[in-house]
From TrEMBL:
Pfam families in the record: Cytochrome_CBB3 (PF13442)
Species of origin: Labilithrix luteola
Residues covered by the Cytochrome c domain: 2-71
UniProt key word Heme: yes
Record keywords, A-Z: Heme, Iron, Metal-binding
Name of this chain's protein: Cytochrome c domain-containing protein
Molecular function GO terms recorded: electron transfer activity; heme binding; metal ion binding
Transmembrane helix is among the record's keywords: no
Length: 80
């Protein structure tokens, strides 16, 4: 899961989920640590966005257990 975050997600979302990866500004990646995001979005919605894409975010074909790990990773950013 860590390798997937580094290779697929951090390019836009940054290592800590702040949307500050090298491609983040270009794609307007959201800050996943913001309380308004964390309290508004359900785990199923995060998983769906990862697997189906949303807006400028592409879909990723990765195993369900990796998706679950990425959801936990996104939740770990809360309040950072």
């Amino acid at each position: 899961m860590e390798v997937t975050w580094q290779n697929q997600c951090s390019t836009c979302h940054g290592m800590q989920g702040h949307g500050d990866g090298p491609q983040g500004p270009m794609f307007k990646a959201p800050d996943l640590s913001r309380e308004d995001f964390q309290s508004r979005v359900k785990d199923d919605e995060i998983a769906s966005t990862i697997t189906n894409g949303k807006g400028r975010m592409p879909k990723f074909e990765i195993p369900d257990e990796v998706v679950r790990g990425l959801v936990l990773r996104v939740r770990s950013f809360r309040g950072r």
